[in-house]
UniProtKB/TrEMBL annotation:
Transmembrane residue ranges: 12-35
Official protein name in the record: Deazaflavin-dependent oxidoreductase (Nitroreductase family)
Organism for this UniProt entry: Amycolatopsis viridis
Keywords: Membrane, Transmembrane, Transmembrane helix
Entry keyword annotation includes Cell inner membrane: no
C-alpha cells in the first residue's frame, strides 16, 4: 500500500522544534533524529522519529506512511539515530504485515497524543483485526543492531 500523508505546517513546526531539542541532547518523549542517506541525492537527510521499545527490541514506525525517510532507509540499508552528540549507526529488518499489530498497538498507546490523527480513529484499544487491516499503510522497522 502506498499510503502517504503530506505533513502540514504544524507538523513541520513541531518536527523542527523536536529536531532542534533532540540535536541538543534533550530527547522529547523518546525522540531521536534519524539520519539517512538520500536515495537520489546521496546527501544525508534528517528527521525526528520516535524509537519504540517493546519486549527488549527497538522499532521505528512511520505514522504518515511511505515517507521519504522510509524510502531512503530501505535504499540505504542502514541509518543513524542521534541524541545530542551520541550517534548510533544501525541496521534494521522491516516487519511483515502479520508482525505489525502488536507494535502499532504499543506505538499508539505511547504516542497517541502526537500521532493519532494519522490513524483515522484506530487506537491502541482497537481489535487486532482492525490493526491488521491498517497495517499495510504503516511501515515498521525493527532495529537489529549496530552497523
Amino acid at each position: 500500500m502506498n499510503r502517504y500523508l503530506q505533513p502540514g505546517k504544524a507538523d513541520g513546526m513541531f518536527n523542527a522544534v523536536v529536531g532542534v531539542l533532540t540535536k541538543l541532547g534533550l530527547s522529547v518523549a523518546g525522540s531521536r533524529v534519524l539520519l539517512v542517506r538520500g536515495r537520489k541525492s546521496g546527501q544525508i537527510r534528517s528527521t525526528p522519529v520516535n524509537v519504540l521499545k517493546v519486549g527488549g527490541q527497538r522499532y521505528l514506525v512511520a505514522p504518515r506512511g511511505q515517507t521519504q525517510w522510509v524510502r531512503n532507509l530501505r535504499a540505504a540499508g542502514e541509518g543513524q539515530l542521534r541524541v545530542g552528540r551520541r550517534v548510533e549507526t544501525f541496521r534494521f529488518a522491516e516487519l511483515t504485515e502479520a508482525e505489525k499489530p502488536p507494535i502499532l498497538r504499543a506505538y499508539l498507546k505511547r504516542w497517541a497524543w502526537e500521532v493519532s490523527r494519522f490513524f483515522d480513529g484506530v487506537d491502541h484499544k482497537s481489535p487486532d483485526e482492525v490493526l491488521r487491516g491498517v497495517a499495510p499503510g504503516f511501515p515498521v522497522f525493527r532495529i537489529t543492531g549496530t552497523a
